[in-house]
Amino acid sequence: MHRRHLLIGGASLFALSGCASAGAVENAVSGAVAALTTADEARIARAVLPTTAPRAELLQPWTGPYEGVPPWDKVTAPKMRAAILEGIELQRADIAAIANNPEAPTFANTMAAMEMAGEPLDRAMNVFSVMTSNIGGEQWDVLETELSPILSAASDEITFNEKLFARIKAVADGADAAGLNAQQKRLAERSRDAFVRNGAALDAAGKAELGRINTELSNAFTSFGQKIVADENTWTVISNEAGLKGLPDSNKAAAAAAARSRNVQGWAILNTRSSVDPFLTFADDRALRQQVWTKFVKRGDNGDANDTKSTIAQIVALRQQRARLLGFGNHAEWRMQDTMAKTPAAAMDLMQRVWAPAKARVAEEVADMKAIAGHDIEPWDYLYYAEKVRKAKYDLDQNELKPYFELHAVRAASFYMAERLYGFVFKPLAKGTVSTFEPDVTTYEVTDKATGKLIGLYYADDFARPGKRSGAWMTTYRSFSKLTGSKPILASNNNNFVKAPDGQPLLISLDDAETLFHEFGHALHYFSSVVTYPSFGNTPRDFVEYPSQVHEHWVLTRPILDGYMKHVETGQPMPQALVDKIEASSTFNQGYATVSYLSSALVDMDLHTQATPPTDIDGFEKASLARLGMPKEIVMRHRLPQFNHLFTSDAYSAGYYSYLWSEVMDADTWAYFEESGDVFNPEIGARFKSIILAPGNTTDRGDAYRQFRGRNPDVAALLKVRGFPTS
Fold it and tell me: What is the CATH number of the domain that holds 161?
């Protein structure tokens, strides 16, 4: 989490308040000057910043191979606390030096200096976020609770620093007169606009009120996240093996291993999606399916200490207060200013276009299932009977597929994809080559195949553990930028697979394999980066999922299947007859998948466009779904009480539609590869890397897509992929 990204992306940033009038430097930018090199900008920027060396151990420059790696073996909560508190003070000094610079504001002494400020704190925060997300536990929860309001207040200091804002505004307003190039002008103008969007233009009373709101939100985000992790760190115990009837042997073994590791007798179905979904798909015991399903969908909604509903009500009320204070009608309008969609109406238009055919498809799916079940379909029946229909319609059983998707083979396949498309070579490192935060984490060196040049280091944290947040995600420990020095990129993918028993292969589902490729796509986005300024490493929320979603398509391509997805026992590649069945069923159950996701996105937008925020969260959720005509056989993929995307930060709030928005570009891009006759077309791959991945947010992402594809994305490609009518 880079503090500088508040300026254009909404993450944390820390600064010193200023009290001088903005007018003093409003028009003080000097006239056009000879163009500076990036090295010149860095030199001038560093000359502005203090040279005070940090004292805290975790603020020191990273050492070791790859021009420095995180010192995981030295990380403790007390050391982290000391590092962050000192890091805030060092950043305050950096910001004060920029804001109080007696020289007229220029791009180099203001914008470039801002990009380079607070580097020690950046390093500490990147490590801290891993400890709270991947490790967790009481000591990290306590520290996160203590530091969240401190970090929020420090973030507001920079936004409310009048002297600093005046310098940034002067550079942006005088960009043409100063002869700034397109990148410099874009950075300055976006930074100015983000300052205004985050309250820099408010009066003193408004800033004080906004500071209060932001601090309370920070506390509420932390509280929500910790409650959900606690509720997910539970399980359903099955004491009689008869309750496992129907489950594949690999899932039975994983449930037994989960029970042993938690010192319980029998089998444990963890309260996470990767454990629950296979049980709901294969377990014959309907009553047990209902029990497991209920526990999962009631996370955060049990009326106990981990109930999140009052926290959600507080968050949405605070968000509405902030939106009104900043001159917007609601949170969604404020949040979507810096997105491709721009307005809630544009996002809603796309979602509604897909919602109607998705609901119609659900009705067809339910009719097929009822014909087999002989009774009404309840939510805990859907995956189970869908699998029966799949078998009947396509002679395809998910159990047939799992032996072909062994975790290490799937990862090797993802590396093959990266090499074919982008020339990245991933080489595994021996244990102990670099420090890791968990013994199970594996590491890989990333190089350019053509030149042999080192690109970076890739970390894979694959397994669920108590305290680790649920789901799958990508993290960067160090990003690329020419301004700050092009050190090797450090990135990680994080999953929550349930470990197989010792000596046994870990078999994952096709859906899990696609998720692995998806998250790897995020990592490839960062490994491709050649941005000049760090802030351009982040792209709009409704663009960032596009490159990752595209990469899911390569899982079932013939070169991947033949080379890597081999039967774990026979070693034979997947037969063409089985591939044909998969392709024939590619749009199967798309009603369920689309309605499950899209209902979450629509309720998110409904919640965040309310003029009067609801206080009864369950009541609002039910009413919102009723307005949509939500099929009774399906629940939202993320119910509000457990919707991490919305309530652990502002990141995806009024933004869960982003996956669908990105999928329009994703589907259209995949059609481009397919139309070429070669899904590994090297020319298209090179263009995708150079136009879409490498520039980050250096240019408008809509313009970039049009440059890549030659036109706007076509929503018909998305409808076709999902098997819905395109007219």
Answer: 1.10.1370.40
Identify the residue whose tokens are 């150079």. 690
Catalytic residue among 115, 119, 519, 633: 519
Query: Which domain, by its residues, includes 250?
Result: 233-297
Q: How confident is the model at residue 1 (pLDDT cuts 50, 70, 90)?
A: very low
Residue 266 in domain: yes
Residues 6+ positions from 52 with CB-CB distance below 8 Å = 90, 93
Tell me which of 550, 568, 584 is where a domain ends: 584
Least confident of 212-216, 448-452, 465-469: 465-469
Residues 153 and 31 in one domain: yes
Q: Which residues of 283-306 are buried (b: 16+ CB within 10 A; e: fewer)?
A: bebeebbebbbebbbbbbbeeeeb
166 and 244 belong to one structural domain? no
Q: Taking residues 192-201, what's their average pLDDT?
A: 98
Q: What is the mean pLDDT of the chain?
A: 94
Inter-residue long-range contacts of 236-240, CB under 8 Å, 24+ positions, other chains counted: 236/268, 236/269, 236/271, 236/288, 236/291, 236/292, 236/295, 237/264, 237/265, 237/266, 237/267, 237/268, 238/266, 238/267, 238/268, 238/269, 238/288, 239/265, 239/266, 239/267, 240/266
Determine, yes or no, domain membership for 471. yes
pLDDT at 720 exceeding the cut of 80: yes
Q: What is the average pLDDT across 480-508?
A: 94
- Cα(212)–Cα(374) distance, rounded to whole angstroms? 57
Residue 107 maps to a domain: yes
Q: How confident is the model at residue 34 (pLDDT cuts 50, 70, 90)?
A: low
Query: Do 180 and 66 share a structural domain?
Result: yes
pLDDT at 646 exceeding the cut of 50: yes
Please indicate whether residue 519 is annotated as part of the active site. Answer: yes
Count of domains forming the chain: 3
Phi/psi zone of residue 300: left (φ > 0), alpha (ψ -120 to 50 degrees), beta?
A: left
Provide the token pair at 442: 């594996």
Q: Tokens representing 129?
A: 């976020």
